């Protein structure tokens, strides 16, 4: 069960699975069947064209015995667990068998390849014999590589899923950020009256290109439908900074879709990025994230009215996390204590996405 359905299969490669648990068993099962010294050992393994769920592999071989090779064996393991091939989907092994094809050869499959994950790979050459067993060469050297982030193609698939559940929109007028009191103290850093961007943590989708890379400040804008005001509860602290929406989101601000995920709960989170035009954050997002129409999208919109004023709306049926990519002057807003509780269970800090959710996962993995 190496490959996805035939419609997704590489036209040059046919992959099958071997029901074996580790490399030692593979060698002991096959090495006595034929003279393995006659088969060349792959050398100088090269990994290229890496995506979030595929890669190309090629190698060099001695000419001796090449005409006997009928198959290649590929041993793929997550780097953090080299001694085991155990994956979440136990029916999908990582011992792969490919019929001989011209190199480089594409290895593709979201069932065993996750984005932004380190793997090791080694290769054998093999000959299938009349009794159906294989004679194999020695294993090649072990090569390490890391799969890539989601591309804009995968992010657009995720965007479409998020748009399907965003629901109706509600008006709002302020962005807010909750923290502990010390966070807002004026002597907390060299730029003493500013909140400064920091690198986003690894919460959300495993393949999102903003995790661990994009610098920004998290804000919320969600309101309670019955009051039209921000909720009084927060998982991040009892003190809240509030700023008028038009100071962060206006005609000079570009908006991007960043992620869509849940944490084993019934409610879902959408991350959008607000980046002033031509800022460092804006340059980072171009080409990496799907751009949204500022005045017409399902999640967070800014519309200019006839009198020149701006009106703002947010999606009702998802929890929006807004990343603003530039420093924010504390003097532009106000800090006050909220009356609600700290609901730590709602924190998304380094939260892991539910990989089994059919609503917020796409075919390339978590």
Automatic annotation (TrEMBL):
Membrane-crossing residues? none
The residues covered by the Fibronectin type-III domain are 41-150
Give the PROSITE patterns listed for this entry: FN3
Q: Which terms in the GO cellular component ontology are assigned?
A: cytoplasm
The lineage's top-level taxon is Eukaryota
Family stated for the protein in its record: Belongs to the PHYHIP family.
Reported function:
May play a role in the development of the central system.
Q: What is this protein called?
A: Fibronectin type-III domain-containing protein
The source organism is Crenichthys baileyi
């Amino acid at each position: 069960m190496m490959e996805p359905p035939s419609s997704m299969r590489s036209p040059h490669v046919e992959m099958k699975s071997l029901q074996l648990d580790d490399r030692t068993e593979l060698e002991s099962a096959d090495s006595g069947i034929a003279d393995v010294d006659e088969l060349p050992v792959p050398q100088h393994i090269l990994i290229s064209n890496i995506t979030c769920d595929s890669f190309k592999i090629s190698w060099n071989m001695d000419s001796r015995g090449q005409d006997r090779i009928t198959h290649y064996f590929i041993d793929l393991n997550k780097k953090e667990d080299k001694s085991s091939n155990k994956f979440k989907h136990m029916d999908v092994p990582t011992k792969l068998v490919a019929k001989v094809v011209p190199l480089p050869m594409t290895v593709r499959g979201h069932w065993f390849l996750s984005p932004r994950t380190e793997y090791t790979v080694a290769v054998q050459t093999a000959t299938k014999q009349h009794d159906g067993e294989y004679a194999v060469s020695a294993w090649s050297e072990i090569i390490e590589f890391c799969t890539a982030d989601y591309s804009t193609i995968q992010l657009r698939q995720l965007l479409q899923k998020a748009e399907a559940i965003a629901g109706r929109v509600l008006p709002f007028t302020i962005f807010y950020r909750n923290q502990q009191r010390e966070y807002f103290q004026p002597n907390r850093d060299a730029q003493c009256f500013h909140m400064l961007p920091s690198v986003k943590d690894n919460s959300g989708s495993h393949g999102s290109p903003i995790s661990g890379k994009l610098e920004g400040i998290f804000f919320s804008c969600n309101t309670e439908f019955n009051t039209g005001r921000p909720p009084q509860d927060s998982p991040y602290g009892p003190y809240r900074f509030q700023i008028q929406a038009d100071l962060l989101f206006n005609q000079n601000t570009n908006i991007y879709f960043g992620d869509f995920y849940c944490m084993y709960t019934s409610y879902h989170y959408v991350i959008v990025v607000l980046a002033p035009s031509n800022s460092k954050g804006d340059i980072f997002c171009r080409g990496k994230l799907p751009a949204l129409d500022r005045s017409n999208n399902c999640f967070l919109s800014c519309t200019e009215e006839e009198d020149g004023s701006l009106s703002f709306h947010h999606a009702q049926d998802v929890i929006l996390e807004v990343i603003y990519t530039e420093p924010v002057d504390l003097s532009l807003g106000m800090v006050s204590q909220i009356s609600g509780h700290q609901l730590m269970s709602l924190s998304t800090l380094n939260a892991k996405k539910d990989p089994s959710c059919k609503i917020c996962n796409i075919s390339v993995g978590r």
